[in-house]
């Protein structure tokens, strides 16, 4: 009965209105390249000062959930990841839009985001304290092993293993620019003070995927090969939903598990989910060609992280990612100290947050499906106008993050690099993954060695590190096994035909 009483305030009109408004605002912020969910939550925290805790905190959670989902809109329509979490959605979302199935792609992304969000919200409500205790077992060796496992995705995403490896190594090298994570010594900055913190990730991402596509679009227009595709429907077909069931379950679980681990984030979750879904699929060759399960895998994972990242925040007082670190500030402004004691002293706030996460996810689904026809009209814009508009958004979005002119140079440089990689068959996705996971792997390797006085055995001594290292070996060996099986199958087929 107490739980029902704690949930009652959520259904007051002003609270529902705040959650709906926050979710819609987050969706719009996420859809605009360069404006992230973190920025949206940080900018709108002052609006919650005078609100009741449940109302204000759930409005911020709505911005978070809507912002992570909104990134898929520009990923699918413009090949411009609205947020780093939606970078993997580009791989299948944009090809679907090019086929004239932008509405279906957005519909699949909305359904997947809703499923992932609801699964993680159930886990949040049922198992927050227990799962947060598992997250506490992650030290530097465990983070290193997780990052190493994530980097093996490169082998699966690249059709040409050599070019994929070159792309990944280039990404790791680029990630080394800036201050050393342990000593603070500057590396590879060539005396340019603007690179002291390394390349800003979001401008680099915008250049790598969005500006490079503008260059490619201009090239196609010069050859008069810029087809405008009609937009059809908004609901995936029954067959696409049937094919995506495994991807939805897998992505939701992977996103939930990774969201619980502090500091990893939704970008990593979406890439790992995409790779594991592709590996488990009977038709892996369809991924990257505009395949609905590819969208289902990435979007269910990155939205599952939203609710899951609240688990260490509420249960332990440890932010699960950057956005929940900002949310922690919102909690403290309300006079609340997140952690185990909060479950005893403020159970009404805890239950209200659990319920608000469900409501924000439902609002995200409603707004997402209603706005698909509006979003899809972007593709009806003439190609030359669209190219100019995307370029303007690229510059505005890259500059708006830090108000730093160096970010514009970063964006343009990565745009040229991405266009060249696309032209010569190198994997932009592999470069992106290496830039995300390379710093995490390096910092935790160095930190772990310092903590253990250069004892390498510490990296193979815990069950979690052994699990991730085993998955790493399996991930690296699986493409070789699959190729060997395909060769044997190809050899058997001529034999059966000759009989």
**C-alpha geometry:** globular
The count of helical stretches stands at: 22
* Lateral strand order in the biggest sheet: 1-2
Percent in strands: under 5%
Mean pLDDT: 79
Q: Report the radius of gyration as a whole number of Å.
A: 22 Å
Question: Structural class given helices, strands, pairing?
Answer: mainly alpha
Provide the succession of SSEs: HHHHHHHHHEEHHHHHHHHHHHHH
The unreliable regions are: none
How many distinct beta strands?
Answer: 2
State the end-to-end distance: 73 Å
Which percent bin holds the helix content?
A: over 70%
Summarize the main sheet: 2 strands, antiparallel
What does this molecule look like?
With 499 residues, the protein is an all-alpha fold. The protein has helices spanning 2-7, 13-31, 37-44, 53-78, 90-98, 102-135, 140-151, 153-157, 161-175, 201-222, 238-243, 245-260, 266-280, 292-308, 310-316, 322-333, 340-345, 347-376, 383-402, 405-424, 428-451, 463-498; strands at residues 178-179, 186-187. The protein has a two-stranded antiparallel ribbon with strand order 1-2. α6 runs parallel beside α14, α6 packs parallel to α15 and α19 (383-402) packs across α20 (405-424). The model has no long low-confidence stretch (mean pLDDT 79).
């Amino acid at each position: 009965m107490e739980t029902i009483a704690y949930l009652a305030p959520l259904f007051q009109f002003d609270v529902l209105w705040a959650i709906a408004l926050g979710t819609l605002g987050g969706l719009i912020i996420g859809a605009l390249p360069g404006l992230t969910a973190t920025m949206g939550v940080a900018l709108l925290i002052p609006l919650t000062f005078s609100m009741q805790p449940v109302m204000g905190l759930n409005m911020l959670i709505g911005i978070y959930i809507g912002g992570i989902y909104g990134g898929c809109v520009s990923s699918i329509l413009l090949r411009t990841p609205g947020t780093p979490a939606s970078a993997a959605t580009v791989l299948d979302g944009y090809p679907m839009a090019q086929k004239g199935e932008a509405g279906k792609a957005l519909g699949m992304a909305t359904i997947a985001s809703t499923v992932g969000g609801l699964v993680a919200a159930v886990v949040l409500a049922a198992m927050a304290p227990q799962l947060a205790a598992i997250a506490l077992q992650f030290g530097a060796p465990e983070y290193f092993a997780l990052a190493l496992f994530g980097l093996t995705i490169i082998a699966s995403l690249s059709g040409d293993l050599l070019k994929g490896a070159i792309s990944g190594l280039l990404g790791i090298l680029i990630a080394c620019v800036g201050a050393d994570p342990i000593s603070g010594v500057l590396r590879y900055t060539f005396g340019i003070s603007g690179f002291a913190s390394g390349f800003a990730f979001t401008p680099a991402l915008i250049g790598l995927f969005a500006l490079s596509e503008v260059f490619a679009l201009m090239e196609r227009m010069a050859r008069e090969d810029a087809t405008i595709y009609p937009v059809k429907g908004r609901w995936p077909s029954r067959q696409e939903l049937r094919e995506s069931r495994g991807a939805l379950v897998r992505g939701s679980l992977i996103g939930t598990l990774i969201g619980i681990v502090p500091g990893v984030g939704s970008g990593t979750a979406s890439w790992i989910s995409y790779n594991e879904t592709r590996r488990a699929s009977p038709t892996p060759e369809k991924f990257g060609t505009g395949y609905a399960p590819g969208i289902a895998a990435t979007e269910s994972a990155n939205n599952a992280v939203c609710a899951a990242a609240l688990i260490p925040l509420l249960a332990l007082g440890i932010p699960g990612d950057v956005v929940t670190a900002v949310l922690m500030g919102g909690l403290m402004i309300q006079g609340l100290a997140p952690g185990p004691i909060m479950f005893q002293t403020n159970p009404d706030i805890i239950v209200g947050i659990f319920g608000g996460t469900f409501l924000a996810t439902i609002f995200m689904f409603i707004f997402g499906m209603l706005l698909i026809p509006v979003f899809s009209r972007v593709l009806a814009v003439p190609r030359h106008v669209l190219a100019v508009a995307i370029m303007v958004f690229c510059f505005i979005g890259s500059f708006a993050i830090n108000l730093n002119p160096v970010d514009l140079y970063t964006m343009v440089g990565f745009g040229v690099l991405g266009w060249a990689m696309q032209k010569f068959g190198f994997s932009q996705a592999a470069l992106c993954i290496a830039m995300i996971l390379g710093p995490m792997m390096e910092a935790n390797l160095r930190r772990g060695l310092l903590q253990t006085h250069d004892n390498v055995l510490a990296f193979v001594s815990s069950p979690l590190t052994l699990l991730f290292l085993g998955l790493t070996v399996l991930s690296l060996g699986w493409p070789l096994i699959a190729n060997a099986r395909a060769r044997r199958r190809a050899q058997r087929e001529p034999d059966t035909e000759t009989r």
